[in-house]
Amino acid sequence: MWSEVSDRPGQGDAEGSGTAGRTPGRPTYAEVDLDAIADNLQCVRRRVGAAQVYGVVKADAYGHGLVRVATQLTDSGVDGICVALAEEGFRLRDAGLEVPILVLNGAYGARHADMLRLGLTPVVHDVGHVRAFAAAGAGMPEGSVPVHLKIDTGMSRLGVQPRELAPFLDLIEQAPVLRIEGVMTHLSSADMGPDVTSGQLAAFEAALKLIRARGHRPAMVHAANSAGTYAQTAAHYDMVRVGLALYGVEPMAGADGSLRPSMRVTSEVIAVRTLSVGDSVGYGQAWTASRPSRVATVPIGYGDGLLRAASNRGAMLVRGSRCPIVGRVSMDLTSLDVTDVADVGVGDEVVVLGSQGEAHIGAEAIAEACDTIAYEVLTNLSARVPRRYRGGSATH
């Protein structure tokens, strides 16, 4: 049974199951299989053994729906949740989730006190963070504000650089309300071979040695993203932070064939045109028929998150066959060459992402066609595409 209640602010609810039961309107949907997410969590658990698993639900759970996915993960026994922004954590607390929530990017603006009040655990990597959280926790008992200290071992984005670690620890130690509950780093190239990762882990170990020598006893040491979880057992430490794998996408080819894709994006044919040789399709006449052709129009475009780079490069499934995208992807509409598929007509299901019969188009294939990564394919799906949920916590 499908549930179409959205957790997106400002997006209305819908009801229905299957094509026949859809709410009247544009027939473009993202179907999210919560059971697949629950099963993928267990795949990760088998990989990491005793290490804790924190599910990464930033960017609207990679386009799958923040609250619904975090709820499913919590119901499935995840040890904690990672978000990028405090605002994402606030939404989860507003939804009633009591699971530990780690805010990976620290805090922006002046929400430090709100984070502490709602029990969000901040990652600190900047002296301003330390001072702000110390001020927000003023008057609280010693060690009552847990923080995770981020070490920059080579990403060169966020994190304390090793040469600055000693004075950074000085600052933390001047704020006794703060407690280093965790120490973390982020792997830059775990899906590209062991050399860079091994160097990062060596730098991380050196930082951990100094932190412990100063008397800190972090209970949670973590480094591995999805790629690190599957590529480098040494990166498991006390916990792993897994995003992509939870959504059924292998972080590198052959990592885990038991992962199940959790999203299927579908639409329908709304028009079919018969073209003569020399007729063109779409803006800029970017595709011209070299033979008598039939072209189907599908109501999905870059305004929905379909990458414009798929123009003349990507494909969709119609009647179990891969049909190439022809012409430029428009904001709301995309054209498919269905010449070689018999009897395509208005109302036929079109699969943008996922399976149709024996045929399948995965996020990895779309990414390859568009010269990008699966992360962008998933997170690009816009809020105007309704999410329909089945299995797991869909009826909660």
Summarize this structure as a short list of keywords or feature phrases.
single chain; 396 residues; alpha/beta; TIM Barrel; Lyase, Ornithine Decarboxylase, Chain A, domain 1; 2 domains; 11-stranded mixed beta sheet; 8-stranded parallel beta sheet; 11 helices; 21 strands; 24% strand
Topology summary:
Elements: E1 2-3, E2 29-33, H1 34-48, E3 52-56, H2 58-62, H3 66-75, E4 80-83, H4 86-94, E5 101-103, H5 112-117, E6 120-124, H6 127-136, E7 145-150, H7 165-173, E8 178-184, H8 194-213, E9 220-222, H9 226-231, E10 239-242, E11 263-268, E12 271-275, E13 280-281, E14 287-288, E15 293-298, E16 315-318, E17 321-326, E18 334-337, E19 349-356, E20 359-361, H10 363-369, H11 374-379, E21 387-390
Parallel strand pairs: 2-21, 3-4, 3-10, 4-5, 5-6, 6-7, 7-8, 8-9
Antiparallel strand pairs: 1-21, 2-11, 11-19, 12-15, 13-14, 15-18, 16-17, 16-19, 17-18, 19-20
Helix pairs in contact: 1-3
Question: What's the number of helices?
Answer: 11
**Which word captures the global form?**
elongated
Question: Could you say which structural class the secondary elements and strand pairing correspond to?
Answer: alpha/beta
CATH fold annotation of the largest domain? TIM Barrel
Give the total of domains: 2
Gyration radius over CA? 24 Å
Quote the beta fraction: 15-25%
N-to-C span: 13 Å
Helix content: 25-40%
Assigned CATH architecture of the largest domain = Alpha-Beta Barrel
Return the CATH class of the largest domain. Answer: Alpha Beta
The largest pleated sheet is described as: 11 strands, mixed
Query: Average pLDDT, to the nearest integer?
Result: 92
Tally of DSSP β-strands? 21
Instruction: Say which CATH homologous superfamily of the largest domain is assigned.
Output: Alanine racemase
Spans where pLDDT lies below 50 across 5 or more residues: 8-21
